[in-house]
């Protein structure tokens, strides 16, 4: 047990600090469990069992099905309807954001739903003269609330269902089983309704306006002091050199954004463009570097652009956008210097927002994490490729993206069948989800080569890696010891009070580590505690599941929070200010709801 506790402590530390990517941490824990088999009691076969777990396979299939829905453009169509309905009325904007996101997230994995809707909501806000900061946290929170409506709403529910089924098979006295598709929907509806009401009344007043309603990315990122126009003097050493040759020296942290010659603007690619006497160069650099550069290279300072309107191409198409890095992106763990981002997309990164901090220079060697946001200038054709690439979330909608709208009936029918078959007891969820994947290929909703890019492999490896940790908790008796320890609170609290303690503990844990990891750790402990005090194990498992699915208090508690962190211009404290009261409110609502619908005693 001490060895398992030590591994849990190691896992919690690595999850919280992000010293390693969370999926790598999960695999590391899995390997250590196998290597320490004499103490952990996890054989090699049990260690890799997470890869064959019904939860892992179901999540994999649901991610593919979600991509199929995305390819049809149906969510974007709903977003357009939402924008038309909301107009410039802030209440309607918020109501539409919550009202569309929540129900959709109940049937499509909520993480891709938010990834799709970030640009929709951002544009809706700007067009409606509203700060995106007022709508993006509600977007993320509504997706989490909607994820509690069905088993397939979030990977957390699917994993919790699988763990409950395993515990029920090992200890029939617990009375646990896999969740039915709509088994807790009635509680989910209550939680969603209360959460939506909070966001519409209290939450909207607590939300700051970090991003201006008028879209001006130069002002938002405070780039005025970092953009400058310079003229190449007759005696400049740069004349005759290409842009790449002139600025390849790492001594100067400079990006050339535009070259202007005789009134004609040249954007990317500029690397092989030869600089001539009299050219005007638009640079991104700080003032100290600019002064040293002008002295060294013979440049004359003209001034600097004051708004992002000055950074548009001659075709008047936007070339300045925010790009969010989602989980699974090839950039995660890389730096701008080590990645091929600039070369692949002929793009200049003007600023770098990470965990709420905006960095405007010397960001080449910063390790990129999920949720980091770039302010990017790139040609229109490169932006189109960025939009269509699932390695990025571009926080602006583009009209030239093509969708398979003719496949909407097929996609909706397939997802309906995937949900209905388990609900009617015809097939288990894992079988219906896999059948849905095959159906999407056969009907042309998805192409075969899109299957593998549809899967967030870091999520799959995370699930596969942490599942054996839950098994070790059980087999070494560590879960029973922890459960008995928490059960001692029953001497001063009634069973419903102990249930509330588990909800709060899971919520706090999920705020600093992965929601899936917290479910794996907490469900065995909760079931043991329930057994110790003679309470319903199902009630305790459900409380843990709901608490892990609604991690509102920190941006790192849930992936969707990270997706809105940068585009909303939020600070870490914004999530705590808006999310903590909601978490506390839902802790009471959920616990009372469980007691009302199922009872706390068996």
TrEMBL record:
Keyword set, alphabetical order: Membrane, Repeat, Transmembrane, Transmembrane helix, Transport
One BP term from GO: potassium ion transport
GO molecular function, one term: monoatomic cation transmembrane transporter activity
SUPFAM superfamilies: TrkA C-terminal domain-like
Domain RCK C-terminal: 215-299, 308-392
Topology in the lipid bilayer: Multi-pass membrane protein
Subcellular location, record wording: Membrane
InterPro entries assigned: Cit_transptr-like_dom, DASS-Related_Transporters, RCK_C, RCK_C_sf
This protein's record includes keyword Protein biosynthesis: no
Gene Ontology CC annotations of this record: plasma membrane
TM region(s), chain numbering: 51-69, 187-207, 414-443, 455-473, 485-506, 537-558, 578-600
Gene3D superfamilies linked: Regulator of K+ conductance, C-terminal domain
Lineage: superkingdom: Archaea
Transport as UniProt keyword: yes
The protein, known as: SLC13 family permease
